[in-house]
Specification:
The chain is α/β, with parallel strands linked by helices and about 325 residues long. It has two domains: about 1-135 and about 255-320, 3-Layer(bba) Sandwich (FAD/NAD(P)-binding domain), CATH 3.50.50; about 145-255, FAD/NAD(P)-binding domain, CATH 3.50.50. About 25% of the residues lie in helices and about 25% in strands. Strand 14 (about 235-240) and strand 15 (about 245-250) form a beta hairpin. It is elongated and about 65 Å long.
């Protein structure tokens, strides 16, 4: 079967791309979303605690919805419900458990997309995977024996043990520290800089309150030198002599994510340094292939509304150039 558009990723960007396609009068059976997880919006489910808000304006981006979908500040559950309704109302097809292995562009025909299960053909293709699919990791060795104690996400999980070290200086680190404190854990936050520069006002106020009330210890200008297994505990050696060696039950890394450079270059997408080259309508150097969502927002990532708007812009480009119609 020849699809009109194949979408890689079943998160907010991918879902909104499919909705935009339906608004452009593309039949539902000509649209397919390929998602490697078992449910849609896997990153939100995995990385967001239950009480985390999905913000309309994320990290200072003032983004007004431009297309078919748009949200205000919603809870995690309300955001997931909103996306689930969009899937149902527009009769979208999401094929779960489909890990995309390769995308080949045949200029005379279409895109040939090979997954872990089968092969697809589509006239247009949008890559809507998030940067959190590939979390950044520290440059020192992490002992395999400590794997159950080292985390790059928590979601709704509250683990055993009382002592936690959270590493990072962004909103995610602040939110996870706050979440653990609320669940009775003794939490220390380690940040490599002396001042926080990447926090939203809400996160900054929360950290200030926790530290003032002695509910959270913050190690500013702290750098981890190495991690060891100390009889099942995470032994952390800091580069700063005054911090020495400290032990924790668990360590949680919140170091952001990175663009899946190898995969994108393997597809044939051009790069300018570390960033993929994106043209008008979020189209790549390959005609008919688009990068939307976090991949279109740069290293910091974007809000859910940014994801929605990037899908809207990409669909307009497809309508203008590849469907021989104008999307108003």
């Amino acid at each position: 079967m020849m699809y009109e558009i194949a979408i890689i990723g079943g998160g907010p960007a991918g879902i909104s791309m499919a909705v935009e396609a339906r608004y452009a009068d593309i039949p539902a059976e000509k649209i397919v979303i390929l998602e490697k997880g078992t449910v849609h919006s896997w990153a939100i489910r995995l990385h967001y605690p239950p009480d985390k808000m999905v913000l309309e304006n994320y990290k200072g981006y003032d983004v007004m919805p431009e297309g078919a979908l748009g949200i205000g500040d919603l809870t995690k559950d309300d955001t997931l419900d909103y996306l689930s309704r969009a899937i149902a109302e527009h009769k979208l097809t999401i094929n779960y458990g489909e890990n995309v292995i390769s995308i080949h562009h045949d200029p005379k025909c279409c895109f040939v997309i090979k997954t872990s299960k089968r092969q697809y053909q589509a006239r247009n293709c949008a890559i809507a995977i998030g940067i959190l699919d590939k979390p950044n990791k520290p440059d020192y060795k992490l002992p395999l024996s400590l794997k159950p104690k080292i985390h790059f996400e928590l979601g709704a999980n509250i683990l055993d043990g009382a002592e936690y070290l959270v590493v990072g200086g962004g909103d995610t680190a602040a939110e996870r520290a706050n979440y653990l404190v609320e669940h009775g854990k003794n939490v220390t936050l380690s940040y490599r800089k002396s001042e926080f520069h990447r926090l939203s006002e809400q996160s900054a106020r929360a950290l200030e309150t926790l530290e003032r009330d002695s509910k959270l210890a913050i190690l500013r200008a702290s750098n981890i030198k190495k991690i060891d297994n100390a009889r099942g505990k995470v032994s952390v050696t800091f580069a700063e002599t005054e911090l020495g060696i400290r032990q924790y039950d668990h360590i949680v890394y919140c170091l952001g994510g990175s663009t899946p450079v190898g995969f994108l270059k393997g597809v044939g997408i051009a790069f300018d340094g570390e960033a993929p080259v994106i043209r008008d309508g979020y189209e790549t150097n390959i005609p008919g292939l688009f990068l939307i969502g976090d991949l279109s927002a740069g290293l910091k990532g974007g809000s859910v509304n940014w994801a929605f708007n990037s899908a809207h812009a990409a669909m307009r480009k497809i309508c203008d150039r590849y469907l021989q119609k104008i999307s108003e």
